[in-house]
From TrEMBL:
This is L-aspartate oxidase. One of its GO terms (cellular component) is cytoplasm. One of its GO terms (biological process) is 'de novo' NAD+ biosynthetic process from L-aspartate. Its cofactor is FAD. The lineage of its organism: Bacteria, Pseudomonadati, Thermodesulfobacteriota, Syntrophia, Syntrophales. Keywords: FAD, Flavoprotein, Oxidoreductase, Pyridine nucleotide biosynthesis. SUPFAM superfamilies: FAD/NAD(P)-binding domain, Succinate dehydrogenase/fumarate reductase flavoprotein C-terminal domain, Succinate dehydrogenase/fumarate reductase flavoprotein, catalytic domain. Catalyzes the oxidation of L-aspartate to iminoaspartate.
Length: 557
């Protein structure tokens, strides 16, 4: 069950863009790197990103076609008062570094006769979104994975689920000593063996928690592991109430299991460049979102998702329509097929020709705007532990993420965190780290029980902590989740190690943090909407912060 201890200089948990960039950067310095990934190395949220990646090209700035200040203001507006200005400034002025890096790795960004194909998505004032047709994330992921697998300094362990961080304070059971992250416990999913990984520095790149909700665009591995693990060892967690729902995933009432990933329809379809609109009827050509926001279907994701949710409840609709037909957008069928080949093919397979028919859509959980609180270099509140990408809260996203900023953040801050981890890893980890031990193991847990707990967690979050929240719903959600956590925790300590148990425990812990933060913030802002407090409230221009064993509080941005 517990067979060995594996050591390395830098340990990275996760294999999306942030983790891969960090690994390549650390390797360049000669450091020995291990990547742990809970499924295939390519299976991350990055793989499913369609629309693109933000970058302000200095040449376009010089020609007056874009500006750094424009991206700053667009990001701040989307973040609704909770962005860290210094982080947003750094992001904007350095965004093109992420594009250059990916070009150097030979990511095949789309071109036409005029040069790079650039989109203008909702919330952006200019065309600055680089893409690879409508499968940008897939192209980025596969390109970087090929580089990582060729790198002699990087070892990859696939199908290893990391479930617990090892820290000095936890190990010695002394909250007063100077803390340090020492490594992790991970279970080999193929043989249910728990392996101890010891490292000089640990980087969390585990992604978000979309799977906490019944309907999500996220893949199966987006279960909030990194957030839960960091919280359990005392790291600071911020802004968990701000969960972004993507306005447009394909509505499929039949033939889908509740745990399947919903097919995403990229922001670029509704962007100014494309001109798609949301309608309430199959034959309608009126943008109903204009009834809720002056920017209509081109508004930011939080506004559009809330508008769809409100309209569906008002009209009793099961879905709305995304209309990108030639008749509405003026784009030729060839243009639509060329720029959105993956979406065109997928919808056609479902019997929908998007060049002549509108697409039935609903919102779904998409992006975790909060997470493990870090500084610009990815440092958490625990020495030796870093966090990057969606698992982190850098202050860039604020209350709502601007479209296509996440991949840029992952690439930029993955590099910064790697450089900081390189320096920290010079401090040798001399602690004796034990093998994993579970007392009182009698038998294997009942899989049906664990599966039921998983399902109840996700339906609870969707129905009680989704787009429209109230005090009554949130209190009910917190009560249910606390009861579920007590049950899974007993299973966690009382039975043979099992990846489903570990993953479900992490999922519930992260779901609890989302619900508790949503209950705490008695206002509406960004991706957090409460119909009992529908307006922003003075005094809440601050981050929610929680640590294990402490009360939740507001702290300055």
């Amino acid at each position: 069950m517990n067979s060995e201890i594996i050591t390395t200089e830098i340990l990275i948990i996760g294999s999306g863009l942030a983790g891969l960039r960090a690994a390549l950067e650390a390797s360049k310095s000669g450091k020995k790197v291990i990547i742990l990934t809970k499924s295939r190395i390519t299976d991350s949220n990055t793989l499913y990103a369609q629309g693109g990646i933000t970058g302000v090209d200095p040449a376009r700035v010089a020609s007056g076609k874009d500006s750094y200040e424009s991206l700053i203001q667009n990001t701040l507006a989307a973040g609704d008062g909770l962005c860290k200005r210094e982080v947003v400034d750094y992001f904007s002025y350095n965004s093109y570094e992420a594009i250059k890096f990916l070009m150097e790795q030979e990511v095949p960004f789309s071109k036409d006769a005029n040069g790079w194909v650039l989109h203008q998505e909702g919330g952006h004032d200019h065309e600055r979104i680089y893409c690879v047709a409508d499968y940008t994330g897939k192209a980025i992921e596969e390109t970087l994975v090929s580089k990582v697998l060729e790198d002699p300094n990087i070892r990859v362990y696939e199908y290893f689920l990391t479930f617990t961080l090892i820290t000095k304070r936890k190990l010695r059971k002394d909250p007063n000593i100077e803390d340090r992250c020492l490594g992790v416990y991970a279970i080999d999913r193929k043989n249910e063996t728990v392996i101890t990984f010891k490292a000089n520095a640990v980087i969390l790149a585990t992604g978000g928690a979309g799977r906490a909700f019944q309907y999500t665009s996220n893949p199966e591995n987006a279960t909030g592991d990194g957030i839960a693990m960091a919280y359990n060892v005392g790291a600071k967690i911020a802004n968990m109430e701000f969960f972004q729902f993507h306005p447009t995933v394909l509505y499929e009432p039949f033939g889908m299991q509740s745990n399947e990933r919903r097919f995403l329809l990229t922001e670029a379809l509704r962007g100014v460049s494309m001109g798609g609109i949301l309608t309430t009827g199959e034959d309608s050509k009126e943008d109903f979102v204009l009834n809720y926001d002056p920017d209509g279907s081109h508004a930011t994701r939080d506004k559009v998702s809330q508008a769809i949710d409100a309209e569906m409840k008002r009209s009793g609709l099961k879905h709305v329509y995304l209309n990108v037909t030639t008749a509405v957008t003026g784009k030729s069928p060839d243009y639509i097929q060329e720029h959105f080949p993956q979406i065109y093919a997928h919808c056609l397979n479902k019997g929908i020709d998007i060049t002549v028919e509108p697409i039935p859509v609903v919102p779904a959980a998409h992006y975790t705007c909060g997470g493990v609180l870090v500084d610009l270099s990815g440092r958490t509140s625990i020495p030796g532990l870093f966090a990057i990408g969606e698992v982190s809260c850098t202050g860039l996203m604020g209350a709502n993420r601007l479209a296509s900023n996440s991949l840029t953040e992952a690439a930029l801050f993955g590099k910064l965190a790697a450089n900081e981890a390189i320096k920290f890893s010079e401090k040798e980890n001399s602690e004796d780290v034990p093998l994993w031990y579970t007392p009182g193991i009698l038998s294997h847990a009942d899989v049906a029980t664990v599966n039921q707990i998983w399902d109840v967690t996700r339906t609870t979050m969707m129905s009680l902590c989704g787009i429209d929240r109230t005090e009554e719903r949130l209190r009910a959600a917190v009560g249910i989740l606390e009861s579920l956590y007590d049950t899974i925790n007993k299973i966690y300590w009382g039975y043979y190690p099992n990846d489903q148990i570990f993953e479900t425990r992490n999922l519930i812990q992260t779901a609890k943090l989302i619900a508790q933060a949503a209950l705490f913030r008695k206002e509406s802002r960004g991706g957090h909407f409460r119909s009992d407090y529908p307006q922003k409230v003075p005094g809440y221009e601050a981050m929610t912060l929680i640590q294990y064993g402490a009360e939740m509080k507001l702290v300055p941005v």
